[in-house]
Amino acid sequence: MEVKGINEDQPRFPNQRPIDNMSCQDWPEPIVRVQSLSESGSTDIPDRYVKPPAERPVLPNSRINGDDEKINIPIINLAGLDGGDENARREILGQISAACREWGFFQVVNHGVRHELMDDARENWRQFFHSPMEVKQAYGNSPKTYEGYGSRLGVEKGAILDWSDYYFLHYRPSSLKDFNKWPATPASCREVIDEYCKELVRLSGRLMKVLSINLGISEDRLQNAFGGENIGARLRVNFYPKWPRADLTLGLSAHSGPGGLTLLLPDHQVTGFQVRKGDNWITVKPAKHAFIVNIGDQIQVLSNANYKSVEHRVAVNSANERVSLAFFYNPKSDIPIEPVKELVTEESPSLYPPMTFDEYRLFIRTRGPKGKSQVESMKSPR
Fold first, then answer.
1. Cβ–Cβ contacts within 10 Å for residue 269, how many?
2. Which chain positions lie within coiled-coil regions (predicted)?
3. Which residue, 232, 239, 236, is CA-closest to 177?
4. Fold of the domain spanning 21-377
5. Which of 357, 57, 113 shows the shortest CA–CA distance to 232?
């Protein structure tokens, strides 16, 4: 598929339909808050949340095709990453390299972000989602930007929806950062969000250097491809209400991360985050005060598929709600992203044509989470 020089008014992906102004301004159907359904006392899940049998989850307390229930994504201690012990540093670099190539995911501990800040961030958001509905509705979002309080992804009419509510906000670039669009409830929420996002920008920058070094390119190469300091950063807070028939639905459908890096602060007390490993779904067991890091589609493209984004999804818990914070560290939205030239050779030709992140996520906003179909559809013909 050749996309260079394509008319900007035409679709950039197979089966993509142009998005007209109306579809960007409003949702195709009335918005129903999933939390309200959960709290209604009903035990009948509406049909629009029932997944086809092939997509229904393996619940967190189930075994997966007989695999050892102790299996987990790698947990990596970053304590020696910036220290003077070169052997310790090489060991950490090697662990991250193996995790990126074998899993596309890993957890990091001793990452430098205060544990109290992590706890405060999660609990501030839990309080927000338990605020009166009129407080939350004041921040209701639209598909034009998704910023604010939402309950669905994608604008496909009649789509099977995910069992979750969320809050999405911009942090970088500064021109998009608008405190008025951030919750004012609870009182400390905006201050905590700001400090939390600042710390995760710093941690993401450290990890970008590691990814570059492990690819055998200069440590600032991936960061520069993202736009240097002019990156995009966003926060999506996920609220997954409990539901008795958790075996019929998903909190978030299977997808790969569309952006660069995702740093997820999970609810370590309630599992549900699942990662595809071969033909199996592995339920991640979060380490306390760890971040789950995953490689996104833009890193897959820049690395010429040396690193691969991996599908993941979220199962619903039948007895407990879950709150998680997903921080997205993305390229500057208007920079063409393509494999870095140092990784393109005659033996390993470029797999992807240039495409900006703005163009890429337009497709995703139209259709919602669809496995890895987005990045796979980008591949150049061989």
1. 10
2. none
3. 232
4. Jelly Rolls (2.60.120)
5. 357
